[in-house]
Design goal:
alpha+beta; 4-stranded antiparallel sheet; 8-stranded antiparallel sheet; about 200 residues
Length: about 200
């Protein structure tokens, strides 16, 4: 009976060692690409984003509290305001494991009347639909690198836009321009405006 208990204890110990070793190996491995993205440049992140997520027609660096504005083709067409509410980088120890980019989307008519369109809790490395196009976040900056785990608030998010009605940027253009020639992207401060029912009147 004593021998059986000794063998069992040895087996349990080895299993624990194996499991713990796998945790150390697998966790960092799964975060390597994210760590490389955050330590790299927005151009490198954009190229990877285009290959893995969606084509891109334009992009902007958006500060928290500001909006990426996709201008309508004509004055009577609404603009889409993609308001960057905030984001977080999550860490396991000193290794980044996830990023959240939270946005609210509004349809703005004649530059004054904003109607809520949609809200996305996270557009990091994924697509969110706005009108006939899509948005996605591919890079962040302005956060503290944690060494003992936890979360860090993000100040800036790079948000890309893609429309099926516009020719996608070629790979050679990705580092040279910020939008296709027939696409107008702007940055605007979101102040919330005056709310009347379900409509906001921008100031």
């Amino acid at each position: 009976m004593k021998e059986m208990r000794v063998i069992t204890e040895k087996v349990d110990y080895r299993v624990l060692v194996i499991v713990f070793s796998l945790m150390l190996i697998v966790q960092p491995a799964s975060a390597i690409s994210l760590s490389d993205i955050l330590k790299g440049t927005q151009d490198a992140a954009l190229n990877l984003f285009v290959r893995q997520v969606m084509p891109v027609d334009g992009w902007k660096k958006v500060e928290k509290g500001y909006a990426l504005v996709v201008k309508g083709q004509n004055f009577w067409n609404p603009d889409y305001w993609v308001v960057f509410n905030g984001g977080k980088v999550k860490f396991w120890g000193f290794i980044p494991t996830d990023v959240d980019i939270n946005v609210e989307v509004y349809k703005v008519y004649f530059g004054f009347f904003a109607v809520p369109y949609d809200q996305y809790d996270d557009i990091w490395w994924k697509k969110g639909e706005i009108g006939s196009g899509w948005i996605g976040g591919f890079f962040v900056s302005g956060f503290d690198w944690k060494w003992l785990g936890g979360e860090s608030d993000v100040r800036y998010a790079w948000i890309a836009y893609n429309s099926p009605s516009i020719d996608d940027l070629s790979a050679s253009d990705l580092n040279l321009t910020q939008s296709a020639s027939n696409l107008k992207l702007e940055i605007a401060k979101w102040n919330g405006g005056i709310r009347i029912g379900g409509i906001y009147i921008l100031r």
